[in-house]
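Q: Please design a sequence for this.
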């Protein structure tokens, strides 16, 4: 008889903090377990079996006047909750759905909603949001991204590289760094580092998110975070900070608290997923 495949187990932790300067928190994060029958909202910490459900985690950073930014990030994560379950039901019925099609449709719908609200209400004018999303299946982690929140991959068995940035910052400064014109330190201190070229809403009629897929192995970790984390820490500092707190159940809280203590100029959010 063929050997039965062992379903991957994942654990997660999430935490957010408004920081030491901002009056309100415009970040939002989300965790969902989705199967053909139901969608379940996940708590800040927990474990799950990828054989019984797919898991989706996301971080969104809102922008806009008054409370529009806070509203925008919450619309983004709420749209995920509403849009993905029907698509999963189609897949369960045998309808083929590519991950790219699913993620492109999701980002387009969120952009449409934010654009409509921004044009309809004065208090929502200019509202927009970043979105970084990871979707875990038994074999792959699929991701979608737009803006300057980030997705990192921390492989357990790659001695040469402790952390890999999967997402690309949708800023001119991010492009300068990717092309080698400036280094990470220069990018972090650049006066235009926070000016987005792409976002959901914020006057963008059409959006083209970055999408991709990563295979994973036991012990691998994935980090989704807002720019409050990356404002405080260089990429190579993140694994070292996480190594100081080796329990996955409090790793996100510890990373956020450490980031706020080092900077705290912005809202700070992190979701960490560890594969067993």
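A: Design:
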């Amino acid at each position: 008889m063929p050997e039965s495949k062992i379903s991957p187990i994942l654990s997660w932790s999430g935490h957010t903090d408004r920081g030491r300067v901002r009056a309100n928190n415009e970040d939002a994060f989300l965790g969902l377990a989705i199967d053909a029958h139901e969608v379940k909202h996940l708590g800040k910490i927990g474990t799950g079996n990828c054989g019984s459900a797919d898991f989706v985690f996301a971080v969104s950073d809102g922008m806009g006047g008054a409370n529009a930014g806070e509203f925008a990030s919450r619309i983004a994560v709420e749209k995920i909750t509403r849009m993905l379950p029907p698509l999963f039901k189609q897949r369960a019925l045998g309808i083929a759905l590519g991950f790219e099609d699913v993620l492109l449709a999701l980002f387009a719908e969120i952009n449409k909603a934010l654009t409509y609200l921004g044009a309809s209400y004065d208090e929502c004018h200019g509202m927009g949001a970043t979105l970084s999303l990871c979707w875990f299946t038994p074999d792959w982690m699929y991701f979608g991204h737009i803006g300057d929140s980030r997705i990192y991959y921390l492989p357990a068995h790659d001695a040469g590289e402790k952390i890999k940035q999967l997402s690309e910052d949708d800023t001119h400064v991010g492009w300068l760094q990717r092309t080698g014109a400036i280094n990470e330190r220069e990018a972090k201190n650049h006066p235009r580092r926070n000016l987005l070229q792409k976002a959901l809403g914020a006057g963008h009629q059409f959006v083209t998110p970055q999408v991709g897929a990563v295979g994973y192995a036991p012990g691998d970790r994935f980090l989704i975070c807002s720019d409050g984390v990356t404002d405080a820490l260089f990429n190579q500092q993140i694994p070292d900070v996480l190594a100081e707190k080796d329990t996955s159940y409090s790793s996100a809280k510890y990373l956020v608290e450490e980031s706020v203590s080092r900077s705290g100029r912005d809202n700070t959010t992190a979701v960490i997923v560890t594969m067993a």
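Q: Thanks. Anything notable?
A: The mean pLDDT is 91. The chain has one domain: 9-169+199-275.
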